[in-house]
Amino acid sequence: MAVSVDEAVPTGPVRDHTPPARRFGGRGRSVLEIALLTVLAVVMLFPVLWMIETSIKENRDVYAIPAKFFDFTVTLDHFKDVFIASGGRSALSVSFLNSVVVAGVSTVLATVLGVPAAWAYSRFAVKAKKDQLFFILSTRFMPPVVVVIPIFLMYRQVGLIDTKLGLILIYTAFNVPFTIWMMKGFVDEVPAEYEDAAMLDGYTRLQAFWRFTLPLLVPGIAATAVFALIFSWNEFVFAIFLTSSDDVRTAPPAIAGLIGGTTVDWGLVAAASVVFALPVLAFAYLVRKHLIAGVTLGAVRR
Amino acid sequence: MAGIEVTALHKRYPDGTVAVDHVDLSIGDGELFVMLGPSGCGKTTTLRAIAGLERQTTGDIRIGDTLVNDLPPAERDIAMVFQFYALYPHLRTRDNLAFPLRAEGLPKAEVRERVDEAARLMRLGPLLDRRPRRLSGGEQQRVALARALVRRPRAFLMDEPLTNLDAELRADMRTEIKHLQGELGTTMVYVTHDQVEAMSLGHRIAILNKGRVEQIGTPLEVYDRPASLFCAAFIGSPPMNLIEVEVADGKLRSKGGLVLTPPPGLPRDRCLVAGVRPEALEVTEPGAERSVPARVVSAEWLGDEIIYVVDHGGQRDVRVRMPPTVRFAADAPVGLRHTGGTPAVYDVSTEELVA
């Protein structure tokens, strides 16, 4: 049996596939599709809509029975209350600032650590590479709640309880495995030959990575960073266990803390939630192209 | 320009894979040397070790008189062309070509002169202001070749540069590379898994298998007398027929009665296999002179020739190359005649050429 020599050759030029015409259906089908999608959209969006409505209603409209959908007085008082309390900044505004610092720094750290690691795992023959990668992934298998008690005890020993640094470290630790795995997919897509060629042209391996591979990875890094940011921004369990004082708490436990006691100021809760949701929405919207590139890039063979 | 000496090369990866077991190569100055083998045979690793992109575990590499073991790729004065072209995507053709020269720090005027010269050699004039993504595969590969040329290196290393091109373009580029190498007279090491490329390009071919060199020789030597059963099965399309034979009465006799002239110095008491090229056999009418009985199993009509697969003494895969005018139906009883000279003979246990 001769060894086949043509197996690596692509077969002929790739023809341009136009999407096939819809085979059956027509009007009845599309009406059904639109109806189902509308129902789905209403179910998904109603809580969001209700949150936004509540945040701009006056208190008596918030508690009105039956609930008022359209006919209510618009006010921005709740939003004012989110940021300003009597005699200066509110506790909520401090927690928002904490969230920005903790989520931002931990995302940057995870990216700075994870991207070079992903590059190394993609490019080099590392001893027991698959086992190492599996181990890294396995740290994400269990829900955070499982490890929160031991982490709490450890943090108490080293004095990281109720510190922003403590949260930054734990979020970074949780985001690095994710960053490594997601970025490894992106690095695999960039042909190693760019670096080889650059090294033959007189650059060191690190310079080759920095000057040629890294710029090609920017969409992937953006997508990965957004996911890491959303995780850190939304994280609740660690935040509520590891922090207690108003100076350190991030927004999720702070907002949750508004509920409880004898009365609940739902207007304030809703306004705080809107403020909390906006940055992530805005950021995801800004990088949406990269997000789509990030989601589809790995699926296409080069 | 310089020759390349590879001595006792061995490459073992940290995960324990041995990519190159033991390779010795002596590549002459100005030679077009082809390394041929199936995927995973160690040919690319050997090339990358010569380039300095991989550090060999043991063994020495010399380019010219310089021992380059510890030199980084850039200081080895070589240029490499890759299967995926590896043109810098953010640079225009002109800048891609100038890039290695600017990295060297050459004066502007000389950079321009050399870029123009390479562009002229590879006929890149109209493409100079385009970025790689606006070039076709063939154009990208010409730019990649030109980028190797501008360096005026001591040697070219080619890592399956034509694999991603379609068949027609590949044939053109093959001619072009061969012509270019002849013109420049620069040493070239060319890695491929395509035997047609190897045969048509190489001054000499090294056939690699499992990290070892099976045979080094000119294309004709490799074709006529493969040094091992592996080479015999790898080179030629269809490959050599391997027919079990016994030595009797000073002749080689197969089970089906085919009689071949034995090469001199044949050992007696071993299991032997004769390598017979499909064109050294002939399908004849049954009972023709010097023919032995056989039966057609199938026929492949290729237009300019027919490959008959015949059953000969129980061996059902004997392939015979015949002109398209000679036609036999499947299952027809035919005669099989040997028309070639002395065949290559292999020992079944060592899988090597014995005579």
TrEMBL record, chain A:
Name the membrane topology term: Multi-pass membrane protein
Which InterPro entries does UniProt cross-reference here? BP-dep_ABC_trans_perm, MetI-like, MetI-like_sf
Any one GO CC term of this protein is: plasma membrane
GO BP terms: namely: transmembrane transport
Which residue ranges run through the membrane? 31-52, 96-121, 133-155, 167-187, 208-233, 266-287
Query: Which stretches of sequence are listed as region Disordered?
Result: 1-20
Renumbered to this chain, the signal peptide range is none
Residue stretches making up the ABC transmembrane type-1 domain = 96-287
Instruction: Tell me which domain of life the UniProt entry assigns to the organism this sequence originates from.
Output: Bacteria
Keyword entries, A-Z = Cell membrane, Membrane, Transmembrane, Transmembrane helix, Transport
Q: Which family does it belong to?
A: Belongs to the binding-protein-dependent transport system permease family.
- Write the protein's name: ABC transporter permease
> Which organism is this entry from?
Planotetraspora phitsanulokensis
Automatic annotation (TrEMBL), chain B:
Q: Name one GO cellular component term.
A: ATP-binding cassette (ABC) transporter complex, substrate-binding subunit-containing
Q: Which CDD domains is this protein grouped with?
A: ABC_MalK_N
Record keywords: ATP-binding, Cell membrane, Membrane, Nucleotide-binding, Translocase, Transport
Report any one BP term from Gene Ontology: carbohydrate transport
One Pfam family linked to the record: TOBE_2
GO molecular function terms attached to this record: ABC-type transporter activity; ATP binding; ATP hydrolysis activity
Q: Which InterPro entries match?
A: AAA+_ATPase, ABC_transporter-like_ATP-bd, ABC_transporter-like_CS, ABC_transpr_MalK-like, ABC_transpr_MalK/UgpC-like, Mo/tungstate-bd_C_term_dom, NA-bd_OB-fold, P-loop_NTPase
Q: Where is the ABC transporter domain?
A: 4-235
- PANTHER family (alphabetical): MALTODEXTRIN IMPORT ATP-BINDING PROTEIN MSMX (PTHR43875), TREHALOSE IMPORT ATP-BINDING PROTEIN SUGC (PTHR43875:SF15)
Protein name as catalogued: ABC transporter ATP-binding protein
